[in-house]
Amino acid sequence: MGEGRDVSRREETAAVPVSEALFSRAKKYIPGGVNSPVRAYGSVGLTPRFIRSARGDRIFDVDGNEYIDYVCSWGPGILGSAHPRVIQAVQQACENGLTFGAPTEREVELAELIADRIPSVEVSRLVSSGTEAVMSAVRVARGFTKRDKIIKFRGCYHGHSDGLLVRAGSAALTTSVPDSAGVPADYTKNTLVADYNDEASVEKLFQNDPDGIAAVVVEPVAANMGVVLPEGEEPRSQTDPAGGRGGFLTFLREITENYGALLIFDEVITGFRLAPGGAQEYFGIRPDITTLGKIVGGGMPMGAYGGRREIMEMVSPAGPVYQAGTLSGNPIATAAGLETLKILGEDPGIYRRLEEKTEKLADTVRRVAGDRVSVNQIGSLMCVFFTPGGVTDYSGALRSDTGAYAEYFSYMLERGVYLAPSQFEAVFVSDAHSGEDIQRTCGIIEEFWG
Ligand SMILES: *Cc1c(COP(=O)(O)O)cnc(C)c1O
């Protein structure tokens, strides 16, 4: 990709950058000028770059600037952008019609492939976003257990459905206040909030209501408060089969079993990213229900949820839990998703390569920034928190100096490195990131702290 091209090339011919002109127009007709909030660059105090195209590990804005892309559309782009095989699969699918609202062969293939890659997902249902996947998974968990309450973790994001837009109230962990205006407190009273990596906070909620909790829903690696790893959890490949009591995820597996609750892994980010079978393969833990999104759609809007057969048999029309979608299993989305998953499956070296590139970035930041930052990295996910001392939970993440992050962000952007415009998002590395581009990024990181 882009060998020898000048990444930071600027074409400063127009008086007002096209991005700025578009953003002014957008703000008149679109709330905040964007169709999803973090795109507005609010937390870095800049104007968003409007994007014209992306290819491989490069993204191009409407002003003629070219960047190395570490956002990857917030996760779907594990192969980089516009992979020729994915584009071809989509083009071919388009020729045959965009939507039928009837079953298709690719949906069957995809469900088989998901079950093969993620054995805990024996049966799955396709939806059109991660939000829908988690919302539906929670509904099934409630229908299956005939219980109403769920536990989620402060700082974990599960999409924008009413019942999941909750963090802890300031008073007590059990007081659940909606994070958003427009969500009645009644809708979130069954959402209990615990602290990520804090076993006692989970135990307390179960002890208070031993028969009332339907499920614990967790990002097995929290990747929406920056990146926070599950404490004490070793990659399965490094676990000593003889010993080791396991870490936070093992604890969640055990406590949910003890109390007859289900364990939902929200793998919308980690699925197909940490390993072929996601975080559950990486750590060797089998949840009851898994939610997928982002990579599963290969760049098209798609999500999925699935799990044990007896649980998924609850879903309509097999069972009494209603869930539906006009565009669910859309033929273009299944074409993109299936091709992406096939490419990932054909290439056993891909996860090692992703990890090596990301480790290189992480090691560079650690070496040059020292204890001015805390760097968390796992597989192709990374976050540089602008706070010393390590980050293991949400309150730790919140100690970050977001002003310093904003400075870092604009320094990198100016030099052709496209990062997430928020301290609390992950750096995503794709298979399209070339060694030279990683090297180049490391050089700019060194300059920043130099
Ligand atoms: C992105 C995300 C969601 C929501 O997915 P959308 O497709 O944006 O609705 C849910 N859970 C996690 C962990 C996510 O990262």
Topology, element by element:
Elements: H1 18-29, E1 51-55, E2 58-61, E3 66-69, H2 84-95, H3 105-117, E4 123-127, H4 130-145, E5 149-153, E6 166-168, E7 176-178, H5 185-188, E8 191-194, H6 199-208, E9 213-218, H7 248-258, E10 262-266, H8 278-283, E11 289-292, E12 303-307, H9 309-312, H10 331-346, H11 350-369, E13 374-378, E14 381-385, H12 394-398, H13 402-414, E15 417-418, E16 427-428, H14 435-449
Parallel strand pairs: 3-15, 5-8, 5-9, 9-10, 10-11
Antiparallel strand pairs: 1-2, 2-3, 4-12, 6-7, 11-12, 13-14, 14-16
Helix pairs in contact: 2-10, 3-10, 6-7, 11-14
Bound molecules: pyridoxal-5'-phosphate.
Describe the structure.
This protein is of the alpha/beta class and 450 residues long. Residues 168-174 have low confidence and may be disordered. The strands form 4 sheets. A 7-stranded mixed sheet has the order 4-12-11-10-9-5-8, sandwiched between helices. A 4-stranded mixed sheet has the order 1-2-3-15. Strands 13-14-16 form a 3-stranded antiparallel sheet, covered by helices on one side. Helices cover 35% and strands 15% of the residues. A hairpin with a 2-residue loop joins strand 1 and strand 2. The protein is globular and about 60 Å long. It has helices at 18-29, 84-95, 105-117, 130-145, 185-188, 199-208, 248-258, 278-283, 309-312, 331-346, 350-369, 394-398, 402-414, 435-449, and strands spanning 51-55, 58-61, 66-69, 123-127, 149-153, 166-168, 176-178, 191-194, 213-218, 262-266, 289-292, 303-307, 374-378, 381-385, 417-418, 427-428. Helix 3 (105-117) runs parallel beside helix 10 (331-346), helix 6 (199-208) packs parallel to helix 7 and helix 11 (350-369) packs parallel to helix 14. The longest helix has 20 residues, at 350-369. The two termini are 28 Å apart. It contains 14 helices and 16 strands. Bound molecules: pyridoxal-5'-phosphate.
